[in-house]
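// run 5 | inverse folding | seed 20
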C-alpha cells in the first residue's frame, strides 16, 4: 500500500528583494516578516502550502573535505518552540507563529529503532552524525518527530514541513518536522509506517540542505509511488511533485536549475562520508611469540583523517584503549598457554583490526618492543627474530627461515546496511 504525504509542506525563505528574479506569485502576502504562503492542492495532497519568509544568511556553504560531520538530531523527546529565525540550538522556528509545544514521539521503542536505522541508512553515504541525543548548544539540524500539524499551527493533513530557500541553499541550524501522530491518524499502524516516517523525515531534512522535490520515484525527494526504500539518487532528475517542472519556487518564476542531482548537492552541502578505514598493526610482540605473564603490546595506527581510538582486546575481552599515540598497552597476570590479542583502530566511522596469537610461559623473556628485521645490523648474527625475544634465531642444518616481526593489519570496513521494507 502506498503511504506518503497527504500534505507535504515546504517553508520557503525568499532571497533578498534586490536579488529576486521575479515578483511573488499572485495572491502571496508580502508583508514582513512572514512574506506569505503559497499553496497548491491535489486529491492525494490537499492543502499543501509553502511559506515564504525573509532570506537566511550563511546558506551558501560548500562542505570541506574531511570536515566535522553535520549533526542531525532526531528529536523524539518533544519540544517547546518560539517564533523566530530557525535555530535548533535555541528552539526557534519560522514554522510556528506563537509559542508551541510538540509532544514526544508516541510510538514504541522498536518502531523508533527502526526509524533511526532507516534514516542512518539513507544518509549513510554522507558526512553526517544521526543522533537522538540532544547535542545542546552546538551547530546542528533538528528533525522533530512527534505530534500533529495543528500543534505547530498548521492545518490537519500536513505530515511534514521544512524551510526551503528560493535559491535552493542550505539553512544552517534548521528545524524540520515530521508529524508522526498526524501520519498515524491518517494511515493507522501498518507494517510500513516506520519506513514511511523515516522517508518523510529524510525529505524534510534534505529540504533544509537545499533539495527540491524530484520527479523521480526512487529518491526520497519524490511524491511518486515507489516499491522499496528510497535513497538519494545520482541522477540529473527533473524537479516536481506530480508533474515535472524546473527546480525552485513554483509559481514565482525563480528557478535554481533545470534539473537536480541529489547526490551531487548533498556532497556539496554536507560532504561525502569517510569510507576509508584506518590501518593498524601490532608491532610487538610478534605473531607466535613466547612471552612472559606480563608484557607490553605496541601497536601502530594511521588514518587519512585521523585515528580517534585504538582498543586492545585479549581473548575477546576489551582490556584497554588509547585515544592518542603511542598505542602501548601493559598486560599482566595472563595465564600460561595460548592467547589471542587484537588491536582495533577507528576513525569514528570505520574500523580496522590486527590480530596476533602468543603463548604465555612463566619466565620467558619479554618481547623486544622494536624487533630487528632479517637484515638489521643491530641483530648481531644477522638472522631473523622469529620468537620475539630480540635476537636472531639460528636454524641448524645450514638453512635459515623466518619472517620479520609484526602482523599486517586486517581491514574491516563496516557499513550500515539492511532495513525494513514494505510494499507501497
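// decoded
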Amino acid at each position: 500500500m502506498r503511504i506518503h504525504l497527504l500534505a507535504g509542506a515546504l517553508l520557503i525563505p525568499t532571497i533578498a528583494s534586490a536579488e529576486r528574479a521575479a515578483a511573488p506569485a499572485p495572491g502571496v502576502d508580502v508583508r514582513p516578516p512572514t512574506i506569505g504562503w503559497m499553496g497548491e492542492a491535489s486529491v492525494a495532497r490537499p492543502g499543501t502550502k509553502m511559506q515564504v519568509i525573509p532570506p537566511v544568511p550563511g546558506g551558501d556553504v560548500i562542505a570541506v573535505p574531511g570536515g566535522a560531520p553535520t549533526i542531525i538530531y532526531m528529536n523524539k523527546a518533544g519540544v517547546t518552540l518560539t517564533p523566530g529565525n530557525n535555530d535548533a540550538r535555541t528552539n526557534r522556528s519560522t514554522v510556528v507563529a506563537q509559542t508551541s509545544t510538540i509532544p514526544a514521539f508516541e510510538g514504541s521503542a522498536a518502531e523508533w529503532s527502526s526509524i533511526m536505522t532507516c534514516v542512518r541508512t539513507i544518509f549513510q553515504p554522507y558526512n553526517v552524525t544521526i543522533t537522538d541525543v540532544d547535542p545542546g548548544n552546538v551547530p546542528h539540524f533538528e528533525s522533530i518527530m512527534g505530534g500533529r500539524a495543528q500543534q505547530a499551527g498548521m492545518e490537519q493533513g500536513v505530515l511534514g514541513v521544512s524551510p526551503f530557500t528560493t535559491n535552493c541553499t542550505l539553512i544552517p541550524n534548521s528545524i524540520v518536522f515530521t508529524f508522526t501522530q498526524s501520519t498515524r491518524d491518517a494511515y493507522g499502524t501498518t507494517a510500513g509506517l516506520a519506513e514511511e516516517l523515516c522517508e518523510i523525515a529524510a525529505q524534510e531534512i534534505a529540504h533544509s540542505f537545499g533539495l527540491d522535490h524530484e520527479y523521480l520515484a526512487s529518491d526520497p525527494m519524490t511524491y511518486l509511488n515507489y516499491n522499496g526504500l528510497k535513497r538519494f539518487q545520482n541522477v540529473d532528475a527533473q524537479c516536481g511533485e506530480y508533474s515535472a517542472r524546473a527546480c525552485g519556487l513554483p509559481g514565482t518564476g525563480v528557478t535554481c536549475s533545470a534539473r537536480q542531482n541529489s547526490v551531487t548537492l548533498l556532497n556539496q552541502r554536507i560532504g561525502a562520508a569517510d569510507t576509508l578505514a584506518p590501518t593498524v598493526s601490532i608491532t610487538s610482540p610478534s605473531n607466535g611469540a613466547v612471552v612472559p605473564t606480563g608484557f607490553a603490546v605496541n601497536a601502530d595506527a594511521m588514518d587519512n583523517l585521523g585515528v580517534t581510538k585504538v582498543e586492545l582486546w585479549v581473548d575477546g575481552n576489551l582490556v584497554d584503549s588509547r585515544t592518542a599515540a603511542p598505542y602501548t598497552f601493559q598486560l599482566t597476570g595472563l595465564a600460561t598457554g595460548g592467547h589471542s590479542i587484537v588491536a582495533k583502530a577507528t576513525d569514528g566511522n570505520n574500523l580496522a583490526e590486527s590480530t596476533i596469537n602468543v603463548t604465555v610461559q612463566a619466565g620467558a623473556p619479554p618481547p623486544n618492543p622494536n624487533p630487528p628485521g632479517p637484515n638489521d645490523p643491530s641483530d648481531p648474527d644477522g638472522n631473523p627474530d622469529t620468537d620475539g625475544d630480540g635476537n636472531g634465531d639460528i636454524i641448524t642444518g645450514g638453512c635459515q627461515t623466518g619472517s620479520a616481526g609484526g602482523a599486517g593489519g586486517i581491514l574491516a570496513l563496516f557499513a550500515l546496511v539492511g532495513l525494513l521494507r514494505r510494499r507501497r
